User: Fold this.
Amino acid sequence: MQLIPCPWCGPREEAEFHYGGQAHVAYPEDPSALTDEEWAQYVFFRENPSGPFAERWSHNAGCRRWFNAVRDTRTHDLLAVYRVGEPMPEVIA
Amino acid sequence: MTFRTPTGGAIDRDTLLHFTFNGQSYTGHPGDTLASALLAHGVHEVGGSVKLGRPRGIVAAGSEDPTSLVQIEAPFSEPMLLATTVELYDGLVARGLAGQGKLAAEPDPARYDAKHEHCDVLVVGAGPAGLVAALTAARSGARVVLVDEQNQAGGALLGVDEYVDERPSAEWVADVVAELKSTPGVLVLERTTAFGMYQDGFVLALEKRTDHLGFAAPEGVARQRVWRIRTRQTVLATGAHERPVVFADNDRPGIMLASSARTFLHRYGVLPGSRAVVFTTNDSAYCAAIDLAESGVDIALIVDARHEAPARLATECAARGIEVRAGHVVVGTEGAGRVTGVRIGPLAPASPDITVACDTVLVSGGWNPVVSLFSQARGKLRYDAELGAFVPGEELSTVRVAGSATGELDLNACARQGRDVGSEAAAAAGFAPGGQVPLPVSDSRCTARSGLVLWRVPGDDDASFVDLQRDSTVADVLRATGAGLRSLEHIKRYTTIGTAHDQGKTSGMIAAGIVAEALGVELEDQRPTTFRPPYTSVSFAALAGRDRGELHDPVRVTAIHPWHVAHGALFEDVGQWKRPWYYPKPGEDLHTAVLRECRATRESVGMMDGSTLGKIDVQGRDAGKFLDMLYTNMMSTLKVGKIRYGVMCGVDGMVIDDGTVIRVGDERYLITTTTGNAAKILDWMEEWLQTEWPHLDVHCTSVTEHWATIPLVGPRSRDVLAAVAPSLDVSNEAFEFMTWHDTVVAGVPARVCRISFSGELAYEINVTAWHGIAVWEALMAAGEQYGITPYGTETMHVLRAEKGYPIIGQETDATVTPQDLGMSWAVSKKKPDFIGKRSFARAENNRTDRKQLVGLLPVDPSVLLPEGSQIVETDRLPEPPVRMLGHVTSSYPSAALGRTFALALVRSGHERIGETLFVPVEDALVPVTVTESVLYDKEGARRDG
Amino acid sequence: MTASPLAAWRDRLAALAPVLDAAEQPFRSQLTVRVSDPDAIAAMGSALGVQFPSAACTFTSGSGRFGDVEVLWLGPDEFLVVAAPDLQITIEEVLRGALGTVRGSVVDTSAQRTTVVLEGPKVRDVLAHGCSVDLHPASAPGGTCVQTLLARTGIILQVNGDDRVTVLVRSSFAEYLAAWLCDACSEYLAVA
Assistant:
């Protein structure tokens, strides 16, 4: 059972959290202005890197806050967590 | 004949325990294992082998034993336990297994448990290194947990009669344990095996708490407990396992590891046999030979594969009349069941030149550090050529290794490592050194270093067993390498070596060695197989813990639940909720009860418990704007006092939920969600608010369980409501459809909404959950004169299906749009954007052959279509593949329609209205007519009563 | 006229003595407050006579015009105000008044959760059978308030003292919680 450091509550067991996929994928400003392909890109396509990956988590069973985390997809190690709105920190994988 | 020594061993000789093995009665003593008690009676043969049916005995004294699998039959049937780890108790009934046991057919009456524990330093293993490490950490003030799989601390010291600090080692062990147990913040767990090591210092350990008490196990006490330990630093002092050398017919009962025989002698006072041949590649077996000789075993010969025997030990042997033959090996054994003799010859070429009669063969091929947990912690392993084993090959920041688990086999050095590592671990956890622990000094004469690495003696490959439990031989390994396999992982799977209960504790290293030899590669270049949890077998019962029976999954109940139970409701599971399914009267089955409930509701009045509906309070200046983005239809224009039905979609335009939105105030709404999606939709709302639109002034709060919700349904509902809410004007003019009023119902503040999920005149009465049951009872009393009928989810489903109202998750499956459901009316054309809108313009969403919601009327009105049935176009099935047009989503007999009907998702369904399609049911194709989804009261005349 | 979620469990909870003194505290006034503006938070605190907790995972308590009031930290802009029964309507009004036109919300959630008070020297041990948060007094001193999981249900756990803990649980999960507590205590009762 991995520990995930909630930026508010501190480290808690993974079971308290909910995964939210890739971070920093903004809802398009004006969806109607997008081509079908551009819209499909937003709806269906996400990165799948081997290495550090910025993703969203929600501390569901705790403070219910969404936050961002950089996780190394090769090891599951969480390299950094940061609050929504904060820039992605530099990480060393 | 007894093989019990007259004195010695940590057993209680004054107490006799009776047990039964393979139908025979035996006796033993407290302190015995089943294995030691059997050996005391000269019983070596425990079971047969899984594939070949060869007799098998007891190879080792502990959890590394590959062979002694037994089935406990009393007190409770339990399969696949090792005789070497089953502590003996009075009345034990067991039988030997041939690799396969049998699960009990009846429920296990024992209790199982789990407990979380947090510490600064976890020490695994209470041998000399672990004890010193734990004491060092404890003296620094750290929170320490020490776990050990044995029933007493001591580790390797338990199997020898050596002295520590010039007194019996048990005294030194007892002193250390006593100090640990009396130190605050220290937890010592015996009979506890750390079986899994995971990320972030998470270690699972199984404590066997009352197994050893057998029939005397106290009631109420959990038999086994899974400790969920979260530690900052870990010290692995997991020791080493002796490994054998493989030779022809090396699997006969009576052939065991030399150190294990020594353990049986010193710990249990048991001799392995009368006349033994010792076969070794290192010094340690000499001590076993000498100790056994001094206890009366005739050591026929020590066969040492090394060219020269160790001088000092050879002299000691000579003094006792024990012959040592260096440069020789055991090349084969004889015997029908138990071994009766060994063939011995020179190492090269390995051909027999003499045969020696014996009933016991003691083998030592060196020592394998126990690196399983280190490897599980992602530590890299390194091959130590001198030791002939994989050892920890790197330093980890939170996991340290001490003692023979590092490959160090000298006790004094192991203890020093324990102190160093215990001190480092405590320091890493932030604790300054405490009082220094004096290092124990041992008088041990034997170390295993300077051994010869020998995996196998060439011979009959088909009878040279590498994994005794899996019946896997040298021939199997060579077949694998011959077939071109090179990776140990592949060879493990091909040969099954290391996949049995013991996970290759004694066989894995040898298999790797034989593979390297066969391939002509160096073991330094071979990657060992990955060690995975569990280190030893863990029963599913222990893993389940107390999560079984009523605690298996939470049962959520509403405030009115006790009434439903008292009135004979049968319940349906909806997520974790128990919802009344229907309320059968005596003699009624589901169909007759539901027909009655439906008829009563449509003809007079019924009511149900709708409290499970999700309810979310939405407040803030931007609440309307926010809901406009979430719902496909417009919510910001809803007037205070009014209610609107709404549909939510995902960004892909597929329906995710529906419900009502009521406007409570200028900046306040209350929305409802489906029962199953309450938590999901709140999360969905928070996700958008927190991650996309944090600038919106909106806050969402779940009030699902604050309210009890009672839909009161049917033409007489107005009369019933009027009776319980005298201050409320219930007239159609004063209380319009899709409006709400705050009032008092049955003396309780209530919010009454006029909404309908049945097409009938209906009200939804909301009161705080505390008042739910009282208001329910008041409604029952007020409705008595109208024959008010409580109904369950099944009737609710029928009533709504007759009206063509979809149920999210039944009519929808994440591939269905509002348009597919015929709900274009609920999709705003005015709003510039809402979640899902852009997807409605995608080509895929505009295909004319999308599956759409329609009604199906079986041509024979008595035929009930099974839900989930496929729908085809022709009255005869063509050759496969058959084109499926869709499936039946709901199907019921209807009191109101006087016939059966169904809802279905059908390709181009809206264009097919009036067509006849076919539903395969068992062997027949049932003709059905496609209709609109609304089948009852299409004009909506009944809504106003 | 009113029924609390664990009314039927009173005797079974009482039977956990002497291991645990366990009892439901029903019908408490509870208000969920969402607010992040520091002035509004201070004003609400003044209105109640209890300052809101400023540190995550803590709670405050005090006495004011509504008697004993506790304010539980549930999130960076979320609090639960807890007071004696029958005060929820007036407290809601007072909090709304203190909030004024500032961004935030106040919702009566009194019946959303019920409260179980547990007291006894083994209370932290019992909870450790199902709670992964470190409950050692050094890690969870009095004043701690965490939202976490106890076995398979979400809870709000308030540490009131070395031997006293208050658990708030969603009403629909209350019977599960009670059943779990009884089961987790059974060994301590057998040994006691």
In short: The first helix of chain C runs from residue 10 to 14. The mean pLDDT of chain C is 97. Chain C has two domains: 8-26+112-191, 29-111. The two ends of chain C are 38 Å apart (CA to CA).
